[in-house]
Design goal:
The structure holds two protein chains of two kinds.
Chain A lengths: L13 E3 L26 H9 L5 E6 L2 H6 L18 E2 L4 H6 L2 H15 L3 E6 L1 H6 L3 H12 L3 E5 L7 H16 L6 H4 L33 E7 L5 H12 L2 E7 L4 H5 L6 E4 L2 H15 L3 E3 L5 H14 L4 H29 L3 E6 L2 H13 L3 E7 L4 H10 L5 E4 L3 H10 L4 E4 L4 H7 L2 E4 L10 H16 L17
Parallel strand pairs in A: 2-3, 2-4, 4-5, 6-7, 6-8, 8-9, 10-11, 10-13, 11-12, 13-14
Antiparallel strand pairs in A: 1-12
Chain B lengths: L17 E2 L6 H10 L4 E6 L2 H15 L6 E2 L4 H6 L2 H15 L3 E6 L1 H5 L4 H10 L8 E5 L8 H16 L8 E7 L5 H14 L3 E3 L25 H6 L3 E7 L1 H15 L3 E4 L5 H15 L5 H16 L1 H4 L3 E5 L2 H13 L3 E6 L12 H5 L6 E3 L4 H10 L4 E4 L4 H6 L4 E3 L17 H23 L10
Parallel strand pairs in B: 2-3, 2-4, 4-5, 6-7, 6-8, 8-9, 10-11, 10-13, 11-12, 13-14
Helix pairs in contact in B: 1-2, 1-7, 4-6, 7-10, 12-18
């Protein structure tokens, strides 16, 4: 690890598997160093990404214009119906508001917007300034909730109050208030959860008859919620199709292609699947302790993990043998279609090396396994928000010599990409140009992915995307890997 | 898509609410300006998210790595002040990233709690956190005042107030040019035009070869471009300053006049024939040079294209959104093409902005909707009330373009769904030719796509 100075404070956030001291313990989960060129975002960002896909809710950012402007429709969370979430609403606080308070402005904005758009609920994101000037956002929300009859929920997402993880927590608190607000019955509005809505393209006609009213918890047999699935590029629709084939009802997804009424009905499901665990485990735990709905951690990325996830669901409903039978049929059918397709990519990609830098570590686990399937090894892996257990797991599944980093920065990332001579980087928007400048292929596994990477067909899409970039003829023109990092 | 959320009837005045903003906040402008200093690391004094968002947005627009550091505020810092964070940050930055310059800008958070970055930087200096020969400048960019343009303006002004020096009684035969919040390709074009005229200039800030670097197989934390500290200091000895765009560049030019007695010339951005003429003419007069044939030829080519194609621009209605300096010149260019800019919106507030449109709007020959500050929801409502043939604006206008089946020519910031602006200018005669090519292409593509078969034309 010579050649580049590591800040002393960062020494405990980077290690090479096989060469780390015996007592090495990664110092993760701590705030970034002041002065770091960190790739991390803030509390607000965490809340915004979790809640934003709820398409029939009003999302208003209470603060100066920037926070709303930067998060306006930047995540490809698809909706099969309403698109209200793709609008950008902000109180656009000005200097006088910062001096005299922004409560009146917020109240007026909510009144006007709720009247015009008739949302099913409203989320009010408090930003840094709001936290400092002491606006009583809860009071305004309560007042407007009474006045308009819809849930108006304050999301306490002041940027400085921690890391992105704390934003996930604030989002889960907000979601909990919807979940715990009582079930919507079929008779109330004819919009009972209908697992066929939004399946594959979302154009399937919905059976609007609803279902029989009920307020009992966990009443719906063989039903699930999918937590931490944001329907990027329509991934939730792929998963819903699998569950439809298995005979398992999807009551709600949190929050991809999300609807307030479905989220309110989430408590009637018998099982929670938790995908993006970092963002939403706290909600699953709460639903378990309050409603007794068990949860399992799953990943829908990569062949093994998708199969494992589907079988885990079938296993949870093992009193119904048909579900297991249908699941077996589904998995073997999908695998039969998938494996020959992967073969051609694997032939070219075998022996290539990959680097992974993602938001949550859980995603990295799946990626490592998936890359192995197409012949690639991971020589550099890291995350913005992983915890100790995550890094232990990462260490276990990585090969010796792999570098593992927490909350890295561009200089470090480039240094290790060069040292490890990687052929591919998997990351997000800020990492893409780093890879390209070095002449390294890139695959977006974050908000800006345009193709679904979940499920069996997602694995093929992933292999295709990786193959297209790694094998691109453009690299023949690039002075590939000819570089040293200049800091 | 947004169609169903936008209604044509009764435009409601919205004092308390912005929908689909046509601006963003100050710090990103300051960060962009700072990238135009050679070997400078911009530093965001606030929460981590601000810095991350600005870098992401700039990366999306330029398709380039964008480096900047953050004070990474915690709850403690927001209660007790961010001094400790900033002092520590400066130490860390110089230790590991080793820039020549750190340009600090504030955020809504650090402004509201009242951090004085100048005083904190002095403290860092005293405690030895800033190595000898290294430069730290700072500017105040509260997000709740102005817009990203204001932030750009404030950072450029701080370059002058902290660095420009008048070292002698006489002035050098050098002209300062402040380009405004434009793309690196535009900055390159200004330098090329000055070069054609044979005028020695200092362009500041200069993001060319910083955020439009070639692919070399190397990652440079500090690319080759950017105005050097020596040049920034020397601006005080130049004989004049041309401020391109009063909103983004006026304040710095005025400050330089006050501080170092360098006379300033306030110009609109050289977009289109007339504004470029005024820029070339002013530069010629100030520097005492004559316009070479090469530039006359470029100008003549633009004029030739305008005349060749004016039957396609005549009377076309246009809706336009963007930053004030861009808009004023774009509207003038559209009017010179006999087009009708009928709906105009900028998100940037300011009492002095609207009057700058007046001379052009007087020539439109019909009432025009102008909103300062306004937002894209408002623009969309206007378009629903009176449709247009063309929309000019940033990527965010694509929702309106799609809903209203109206062609969009992308200009301004941010453009996050197309490329080209990194390398091809909008400024100058060449830039106007490119702009006109795009406008004509958009209008004629639509005509080709929608014309009934019998009136589908081969020759246009």
């Amino acid at each position: 690890m010579a050649g580049l100075k590591l800040l002393d404070e960062r020494r405990r956030q980077v290690f090479e598997k096989g060469s780390e001291p015996a007592d090495f313990e990664i110092a993760c989960g701590k705030p970034s160093l002041s002065g770091a060129v960190s790739q991390r975002a803030c509390v607000f960002c965490g809340s915004r990404v979790v809640l934003y896909p709820i398409a029939d809710a009003l999302h208003i950012v209470h603060g100066p214009v920037g926070c709303a402007a930067y998060t306006w429709d930047i995540r490809g969370s698809r909706s099969s119906g309403p698109e209200l979430h793709r609008m950008s609403f902000t109180t656009d606080l000005r200097e006088t508001d910062v001096i005299y308070g922004g409560e009146k402005k917020l109240e007026a904005a909510l009144r006007q917007l709720i009247a015009r758009h008739n949302p099913k609920a409203a989320f009010v994101y408090g930003t840094c300034v709001v936290g400092v000037i002491g606006d009583d956002v809860d009071a305004v929300c309560n007042k407007m909730s009474k006045e308009t009859g819809i849930p108006v929920i304050a999301v306490h997402s002041e940027g400085f109050k921690g890391t992105k993880k704390d934003g996930y927590k604030a989002a889960c608190d907000a979601l909990w208030r919807i979940v715990d607000s009582g079930e919507v019955t079929g008779e109330e509005d004819g919009l009972g959860p209908d697992s066929s809505r939004g399946v594959r393209g979302g154009r399937r006609a919905s059976s609007a008859s609803g279902r029989s009213p009920s307020s009992e918890l966990g009443k719906r047999p063989y039903s699930i919620n999918i937590l931490g699935e944001f329907n990027i590029a329509g991934e939730a629709w792929i998963l819903k199709e699998y569950f439809r084939k298995m005979g398992v009802e999807v009551v709600s997804t949190f929050t991809g292609d999300g609807r307030i009424d479905e989220i309110r009905n989430a408590r009637t499901a018998s099982l929670n699947l938790v995908q993006c665990s970092g963002s939403i485990t706290s909600l699953a735990k709460r639903m378990e302790s309050e409603y007794g709905i068990p949860f399992i951690r799953v990943s829908f990325f990569g062949i093994e993990d998708v199969s494992k996830a589907l079988y885990a669901v079938a296993d949870a409903f093992k009193d119904n043998k048909d579900i297991m039978a249908r699941t077996r049929a589904l998995v073997s059918e999908e695998l039969a279609a998938l494996l020959p397709q992967l073969e051609k990519y694997r032939k070219d990609l075998t022996g290539k090396k990959a680097a992974i830098y993602v938001g949550g570590a859980f995603k990295a686990f799946s990626l490592i396994v998936a890359l192995r399937h197409i012949g690639m090894s991971v020589v550099l892996a890291g995350s913005q928000t992983g915890n100790k257990d995550d890094y232990e797991t990462l260490k276990e599944i990585c090969d010796d010599g792999a570098v593992i980093v927490d909350d890295t920065n561009p200089v470090e990332l480039c240094k290790y990409m060069l040292e490890k001579k990687v052929d591919l980087l998997i990351g997000g928007v800020k990492e893409r140009p780093l890879a390209y400048k070095l002449g390294v292929a890139f695959c977006d596994h974050n908000h800006e992915r345009k193709i679904p990477l979940a499920g069996f067909e997602g694995m093929v899409a992933f292999a295709k995307e990786v193959h297209a970039s790694v094998m691109s003829p453009i690299w023949k023109f690039a002075p590939r890997m000819a570089s040293e990092v200049k800091a | 898509m947004l169609l169903r959320h936008t209604t044509a009837e009764s435009i409601v005045e919205r004092e308390a609410l912005t929908i689909n903003p046509a601006k963003t906040c100050q710090p990103i402008g300051a960060m962009y300006a700072a990238l135009g200093i050679h070997k400078c690391l911009p530093h965001s004094h606030g929460s981590q998210g601000c810095c991350s968002y600005h870098r992401s947005m700039l990366t999306r627009h330029f398709k380039e790595p964008v480096m900047a550091a953050t004070s990474a505020f915690t709850e403690g810092a927001s209660v007790f002040g961010g001094q400790a964070n900033l002092v520590e940050a400066l130490g860390n930055i110089f230790t590991i990233y080793n820039p020549d310059v750190v340009a600090i800008h504030t955020t809504c958070l650090s402004e509201t709690i009242g951090d004085d970055c100048g005083q904190i930087a002095s403290k860092a200096q005293e405690s030895g956190k800033i190595p000898a020969g290294k430069v730290v400048i700072n500017t105040s960019t509260p997000s709740y005042v102005g817009s990203h343009i204001t932030g750009f303006s404030n950072m450029v002004k701080s370059m002058v107030t902290s660095l420009s020096e008048s070292t002698k009684p006489g002035k050098d035969n050098v002209v300062n040019i402040i380009p405004g919040f434009v793309d690196p390709s535009d900055m390159e074009e200004i330098k090329r035009l000055a070069g054609e005229l044979g005028v020695k200039t200092i362009l500041f800030p200069d993001t060319s070869n910083v955020v439009n670097t070639p692919m070399t197989g190397k990652f440079h934390m500090y690319p080759a471009g950017g105005t050097t500290i020596e040049d920034l200091k020397a601006t005080g000895d130049s004989k004049a300053t041309l401020a391109l765009g009063p909103s983004a560049s006026g304040a710095a030019a005025k400050a330089l006049d006050t501080k170092c007695k360098v006379p300033c010339f306030d110009l609109e951005l050289p977009i289109g024939l007339q504004a470029t003429d005024r820029f070339i003419d002013t530069l010629r007069r100030v520097a005492g040079v004559t316009v070479p044939e090469s530039l006359n030829r470029e100008r003549g080519q633009l004029l030739d294209m305008m005349t060749d194609m004016h039957q396609y621009t005549y009377g076309r209605k246009v809706a336009i959104a963007g930053d004030p300096d861009h808009l004023v010149s774009l509207v003038e260019f559209l009017v010179s093409l006999d087009m009708k800019p009928i709906h105009i919106v900028t998100g940037t507030p300011g009492k002095k902005i609207a009057p700058r449109f007046q001379a052009s709007l007087d020539k439109v020959g019909r009432p025009v909707n102008l909103k300062v500050p306004g937002d894209l929801f408002h623009l969309h409502q206007w378009i629903k009330q009176e449709p247009v043939d063309l929309i000019l604006g940033n990527t965010h206008c694509k929702y309106i373009a799609r809903d209203e089946k109206t062609p969009l020519v992308r200009v301004g910031f941010p453009i996050i769904d197309r490329v080209g602006h990194q390398y091809m200018p909008t400024l100058g005669y060449k830039g106007a030719i490119r702009l006109l090519e795009k406008i004509l292409g958009a209008i004629m593509d639509r005509q080709d796509a929608e014309a009934p078969e019998e009136s589908f034309e081969l020759v246009m």
